[in-house]
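Field notebook, page 246. I keep forgetting to write these up properly, so this time I am using the form the group agreed on. The chain and the ligand, fructose -6-phosphate, are recorded exactly as supplied. Prediction of the bound pose follows.
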Amino acid sequence: MIHLKVMKAKNPEEVGKLAADQFELAIHAKPACVIGLATGSTPLPLYRELIAREKAGKLDFSRVRSANLDEYKGLAPDHPQSYRRFMQENLFDHISIKPENTIVPDGLAEDVDAMCAAYEKKIEDWGGVDVQLLGIGHDGHIGFNEPSNHFTQMTNEVKLTAMTREANKRFFSSIDEVPTAAYTMGIGTVMAAKKIVMVITGEDKAEILYKAFFGPVTPKVPASILQFHPDVTLICDEAAAKLMPQ
Ligand code: F6R
């Protein structure tokens, strides 16, 4: 374990507040900072908190740039389950961030290699990600980087595992509607972020939290690579921290 900082909170709302503190610090230090964002249930309290803090005049997103981790292949930006739409509804539509300063992989890309290369180039042109937000899947995935025999490098297309499709079917009317593939920043893209903030809540994530941060580093648990990142802040609630060594 190298530079892991752990913050334990009572519940998911408190995790959201502690994570919001990290983003507030970053934005105050650098008003045009680049933040990497995630979708899913875990970041929702954080997004609510960021919206409230800007409304209260404590934060200003007008110069912030953001790059999302992933998007389903084949979903249009305005599809109800697209990650672009999720970000609009849960964050972007309620803060002063400029639309041109938010990027999400294009689910409808015709030339996938060109889209992925352009995504990496945009992040590079912005000067790289200053703070990357991550959640974790039950199988240890980060972004849509699923367990594999190797760590993926840059933004790329991935097939979704049965476990991930099953976990995400709650948002669709049936499993058949859950896309079978997605575009995601690679592990290499994530590891290039200057700072990483990972949020984990719920007892159902206690085992994978343990494996990711206290087990062996292996592409079978993609998040375990974070043990090699120099600046990771893990913010979790008591339920998720249940198996964590004291
Ligand atoms: C989504 C993403 C995923 C989620 C993970 C956990 O952009 O990157 O890796 O973070 O699937 O999702 P929740 O928070 O819904 O448990």
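OBSERVATIONS:
- The mean pLDDT is 96.
- The pocket of fructose -6-phosphate is lined by residues 38-42, 69-70, 135-137, 141-143 (CB under 6 Å).
FOLLOW-UP: compare against the apo run.
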